[in-house]
Amino acid sequence: MRKITQSVLGGLIGGVLALIFPAFVQAAVIPDGGGCPFEGELFIKLVNILSETIEFLLGIGAGVALLFVMIGGIQYMASGGDEKSLASAKKTITYSIIGLVVILGSILIINVLRDIFGFNYC
Description:
This protein is mainly alpha-helical. The chain has helices spanning 2-20, 41-78, 83-117. Helix 2 runs antiparallel to helix 3. It has one domain (2-121). This is TrbC/VIRB2 family protein. InterPro entries: T4SS_pilin (IPR043993). The chain crosses the membrane at residues 56-74, 95-113. Keywords: Membrane, Transmembrane, Transmembrane helix.
């Protein structure tokens, strides 16, 4: 149970960091002609690397959350009617679904902020 709590907590912390990161990036107006609104190749590369790294880690977190949903389902089936085992399995499933929702919400917010700040055009 402790590992499950740590995994969900890690997913939540990763989601919060993913939400905070775009706040450090300055807003930009996309010119009418399109193209990247930022200057400096190093800055653009850095932002793209960080963005791809965050998306990769969130993808791993989503995979781990799905794995724990399956583990919780197996625990539920194997509980044999024991109330403690049933409660533990239900908590595992609940917390992993909450973690998955947070991760998917983080991915959505990151993509929306990328569009707003113009990083999809670089």
